[in-house]
Write a structure and sequence with these properties.
This protein is 34% helix and 21% strand. It is an alpha/beta fold.
């Protein structure tokens, strides 16, 4: 046990979002998260399910992501409110902070503004799933969405594969003068901007939905029949941007069996009214990376992620290790 048994505010590092973003190396993020899921798949520890509180008066909610980085001697929790009041004020509706506590002393060691951690783990988790569930010859990528999560998905997708074609669609970037469009173009000069969802995903064999939609933005018949489709939205209670029918028409995977079916809106709706069962999930990411679950790379596959706390705790540890003394 460390001799320091009394907590002092001076002993806790406070890290802003700007600092976090500058400290994370994307290749290190991919390696770090693969290690997290391998440990989970190997049964070295169990990540508690995320929980949420619905803020009925405001119309938003708050998600709590508990987790651990046992090799790094840390436990912690990310608290991430989604507040419609902020959205009405013209602000990003999501805020997020991660508290880190030492498993040696039991005392707080860090409070991190963790929006960049969430963006990184969301996109990197999808990238790891794409590597695992698709063939290297699946080289036509379509991204749906244009916000920070979509941008991060583009960045991480470019790290894992040489894509023959990358296209993106969002109503907000159809106009050539869109500021978001220029940001995305700088990331990948050969990026194609589709004028419709149909044009965007029609010839793709990997489709990443990266929206904040609360309801499906397309029907099942609009989705490719032999593609890997991914989705990440958790923008409110039971939010989902793909139709629940996709679950019955796909081989289904997720990031965490313990959490995802309780949070993903299409899974909740499909169990309640669509004749689907969470027992139909073929594998989660830990099982896939430890070969406990098969990883076919053909036919229509669906991967759903909602995030687990251990991802943020591990990335927070990575960021802290890069802070100058």
């Amino acid at each position: 046990m460390n001799d320091e048994t009394q907590w002092s505010p001076n002993s806790m590092k406070l890290v802003t979002a700007e600092e976090v973003a500058s400290l994370l190396d994307k290749n290190e993020v991919l390696t770090c998260l693969e290690e997290v899921f391998v440990e989970l798949g190997s049964g070295k520890f169990t990540n508690p399910p995320q929980t949420s509180i619905e803020l009925r008066e405001d119309g938003g909610d708050t998600i709590f992501y508990p987790g651990a980085h046992l090799r790094g001697g840390l436990i912690g929790v990310t608290v991430s409110p989604y507040l419609f009041a902020r959205s009405r004020a013209g602000l990003n509706p999501v805020t997020s902070f991660t508290l880190l506590i030492s498993t040696e002393s039991g005392l707080p060691v860090g409070l991190i503004e963790s929006e960049p951690l969430i963006e990184a783990r969301t996109a990197a988790t999808t990238a790891i799933a794409v590597k695992t569930l698709s063939s290297p010859t699946d080289n036509r990528l379509a991204i749906v969405g244009s916000g920070p999560i979509a941008r991060a998905h583009l960045e991480y997708a470019l790290l894992i594969r040489q894509w023959e074609e990358v296209s993106i669609y969002s109503p907000s970037i159809v106009e050539e003068t869109s500021p978001r469009r220029s940001v995305l173009q700088r990331l990948h000069p050969e990026l194609k901007f589709a004028e419709s969802l149909k044009e965007n995903i029609g010839g793709a064999n990997v489709v990443m939905f990266c929206t904040a939609a609360a309801e499906p933005i397309c029907g099942l018949n609009e989705l490719p029949g032999t593609a890997l489709i991914t989705s990440t939205t958790t923008s409110g209670p039971e939010a989902h941007d793909v139709p629940m029918e996709l679950l019955l028409a796909s081989t289904v995977y997720c990031d965490s069996r313990a959490t995802t079916p309780n949070i993903a809106g299409e899974m909740i709706a499909a169990e309640r009214e669509g004749g689907w069962s969470r027992s139909a999930i073929v594998g989660d990411l830990g099982e896939l990376l430890t070969s406990k679950s098969a990883a076919p790379n053909n036919g229509r596959r669906y991967f759903r992620s909602v995030g687990i706390g251990s991802e943020e705790i591990s990335l927070a540890k990575l960021a802290l290790s890069r802070l100058p003394d």
